[in-house]
Sequence to fold (395 residues):
Amino acid sequence: MQHNASKQDTILVHVGRRPHDHQGMVNPPVYHASTILFPTLDALDGRDPNTRYTYARRGTPTSAALEEAVCALEHAAGTILTPSGMSALSTAILACVRAGDHILVTDALYAPVRHWLDRMLSRLGVAITYYDPAIAPAALERLITDRTRMITMESPGSLTFEMQDIRAIVAVAQARGIATLIDNTWSSGYFLKPLTLGVDISIQAATKYIGGHSDLMMGVIACSARALPWVRDAATLLGLCVAPDDVFLALRGLRSMGTRLRQHHANGLAIARWLQGRPEVLRVLHPALPDDPGHALWTRDFTGASSLFGFVLRPAPRSALAAMMNAMRLFGMGYSWGGFESLLLPTDPAASRSATVWNPGGQTMRIHIGLEDPEDLIADLEDGLARLTTAAGHP
Ligand SMILES: *Cc1c(COP(=O)(O)O)cnc(C)c1O
Fold:
């Protein structure tokens, strides 16, 4: 199907679909494949320019449809699919470094990747320096050595939601030919377009809002023209591929992602504002709130907010926290996020920091606001906070 739409929601509905190549079916077919047969020896030997697919690990029409869609979403020259968000990060970083190199990594990055960096990448001879996500450009420059090959960002940061000055960091990196990468899972590529700001690689856990229904594990690596050959080569050498039924789920999720994200934005802000007014809550960590320290950066670079954010509860014994958490009716307690349902989790950001100190004076929580009616969610939270207060023995 031909389309020359310019609006993001229209593109997400139409991109990667060619119904009249498939008897008019609205969605692309799901090709289950390993072997792909070549009609002639020329095709096998790569002398036939019409040969597009050679072996299913290296791509099928199904994976190509999702890659095309993510390219449109992220304004990318090319997209690589990986089995998880974690493997998207590790693959993209591996693609850019070699033994002897040095990389700069935000202190607020997704913690499991920090374990991979510290326990595996460092073993391969890559030096890692963590930096304060709110670092000033001059201070960042002082951390750069002639070995520095890459700067990674995540904005807002995992668990703590600090905003980063992406434009300033990119300017520092570009002046020295250093590659930049951002974990763009929070915005889902819908509210932030890092590649248009000069970032080389934007990765996402498609597990989150692209999937959107808590039933998918996948990562996507959206690349600039410069970064694409590095990342494609690394993913091919590592043998990464994704399953066709998972690609189908990701494509299905993308079609409604704009509508879902606008509702997540509104519901998330409603709950964030409500939490701000609660005496049990010391602080709400949400960059779309006007008094958040990252608000100006969020306003400058983002067109909306997803519904994952943090807040800090006044100190209370673990038993009081358990009284609150164990009887939540609508909020589930579990990892991951980005689905249609709400989640609530106590977190420990201090345990995965080295360049900065996280000491907010109480229990940090992470909350994901789903597509339920916010009034019902507020009632659930209100009861939970009452249980916390009663169990803590406060007035
Ligand atoms: C969940 C998450 C990941 C990892 O994604 P998986 O699909 O669970 O491997 C990476 N980055 C961020 C910010 C995440 O929230």
